[in-house]
Each structure stands twice: as C-alpha cells, then as structure tokens.
C-alpha cells in the first residue's frame, strides 16, 4: 500500500488509532494474522477530519517517514486497537509496528557502590552506548527481573563482587537520548562495599578498568544522564 510521508501515532492508555488506505478508521488488527498490508497510522489531516485534537509528544523518522507521537485529547477510545495486538498482524504497516516497538520503555538498573571513604565505584566501558567512558555498574534488566535484582546481578557480572543494597528507594529517571525516539527508564540504587580491590574481577571485553571517585569527581567524568541524576543525590 502507498504510505503518506508523515503520520500521527496517537496513543491513549494502550490504545492506538489505525486507518485504512483511504483514511477510514478506527481499524482493528488481528494478532498472528498473515496477508496484505492494509492498515496504517493516519495523517494529521485525517485525524482532524475525525474531529480529534491532540497534544504532540515527540517526532522521529522511520525510513524517511515522519512519525509524530501524540496524545489524543478525548476519552479512552474503547474502539481503537490495542497496541500489543498490532505487532503480529501483517495487515498493519511496518512503519506503525516499528513506531509501536520504539515506544516501549527500555528498562535499566544501576547502582552507586560506596566505600568507607564515601567514594563511588565506576567502570570504563568497552561496548554499548558509552564506549571509553566511565559509568556506574548496571545494565539492561532481564524480562522477568526486578530492578533491585538486576543491578546486583550486573555488578557480579561486570565487577565480580557481591553487594547488598541499602534500604533507600531507587532514583528513577526517564529520558530519550537517541534520535530513534526510544525511551529509557533507569532505576539507580545505592550500596556500601568495603572489600579489597583485589576482589574486583572485571568482565572481559566489557569493562576495561575501574576506579573510585569522590561524588564530585564522579559527576565530572560520568557521561550518562542517568548516572548524573543519581550522583547528584550523594
């Protein structure tokens, strides 16, 4: 099917607006169905013709198509499509499915490990988003993993040490820092560890070195917005 050069991704509490090639909607997908593509996101003109106002959130590009993510200013649209049901229907255009995929939060769990001097443990990264820079231990959470478990697991994997988190609530930060419009949510905990540095065993090909920094020094070398937001609480 022909696809417009710019479309609106309207989402309200898990419901999204799909139209057919003529701009008629709402249309409903069918999970795990196969067949020709016939549903897409509407253009702004088609949305206006339906009498729907919206509040734009952000705009990103998918294969040359401009997608504007927006919140529709109306009551919950019961007759719209569930976003989760759009992913596995061939009738839904790949641009819409890719946009929905990008809208799912990526969850990251990290930890500020402090020693008896109040210094923070950081590692220099060899792969991922921040190659060659210092970051707090942590990483992506597993699918069925609590963030408090994830950062402890990541610390064992990256630094080779077991830690015990303190009782403070995590610092939660959300931001989009890529041009693909993908949102990351970070949970950063705090722990104390007073072992010997000889116990630290760095993960090969991931962490090149470690160092202890004062909170102010850590803020200076940290490049992750998540790390900076957490370190300011020390």
Written overview of the protein:
The protein is of the alpha+beta class. The protein contains six helices and twelve strands. It has helices at 44-49, 83-86, 94-102, 147-159, 215-221, 225-231; strands at residues 6-12, 15-16, 54-62, 65-72, 81-82, 106-114, 120-125, 134-135, 138-140, 171-176, 183-192, 207-213. The chain has a five-stranded mixed sheet with strand order 3-4-1-2-5. A four-stranded mixed sheet has the order 9-6-11-10, sandwiched between helices. It has two domains: 6-102, no CATH class; 106-231, Nucleoside Triphosphate Pyrophosphohydrolase (Alpha-Beta Complex).
Number of helices: 6
How far is the N terminus from the C terminus? Answer: 55 Å
CATH homologous superfamily of the largest domain? Nucleoside Triphosphate Pyrophosphohydrolase
CATH fold description of the largest domain: Nucleoside Triphosphate Pyrophosphohydrolase
Structural class: alpha+beta
- Which radius of gyration do the C-alpha atoms yield? 22 Å
**What's the total number of strands?**
12
How many strands, what sense, and barrel or not for the largest sheet?
Answer: 5 strands, mixed
């Amino acid at each position: 099917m022909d696809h417009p050069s710019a479309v609106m991704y309207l989402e309200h509490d898990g419901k999204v607006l799909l139209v057919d090639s003529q701009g008629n909607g709402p249309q409903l997908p069918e999970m795990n169905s196969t067949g020709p593509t016939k549903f897409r996101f509407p253009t702004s003109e088609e949305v206006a013709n339906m009498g729907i106002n919206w509040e734009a959130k952000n705009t990103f590009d998918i294969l040359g198509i401009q997608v504007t993510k927006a919140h529709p200013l109306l009551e919950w649209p019961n007759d719209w499509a569930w976003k989760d049901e759009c992913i596995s229907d061939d009738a839904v255009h790949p641009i819409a499915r890719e946009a929905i995929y990008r809208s799912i939060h990526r969850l990251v769990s990290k930890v500020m490990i402090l020693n008896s001097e109040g210094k923070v443990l950081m590692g220099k990264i060899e792969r991922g988003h921040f190659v060659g820079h210092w970051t707090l231990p942590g990483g992506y959470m597993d699918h069925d993993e609590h963030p408090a478990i994830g950062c402890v697991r990541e610390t064992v994997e990256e630094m080779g040490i077991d830690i015990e988190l303190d009782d403070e609530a995590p610092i939660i930060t959300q931001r989009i820092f890529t041009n693909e419009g993908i949102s990351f949510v970070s949970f950063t905990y705090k722990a104390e560890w007073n072992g010997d540095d000889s116990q630290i065993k760095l993960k090969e090909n991931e962490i090149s070195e470690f160092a202890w920094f004062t909170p102010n020094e850590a803020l200076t070398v940290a490049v992750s917005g998540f790390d900076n937001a957490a370190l300011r609480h020390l």
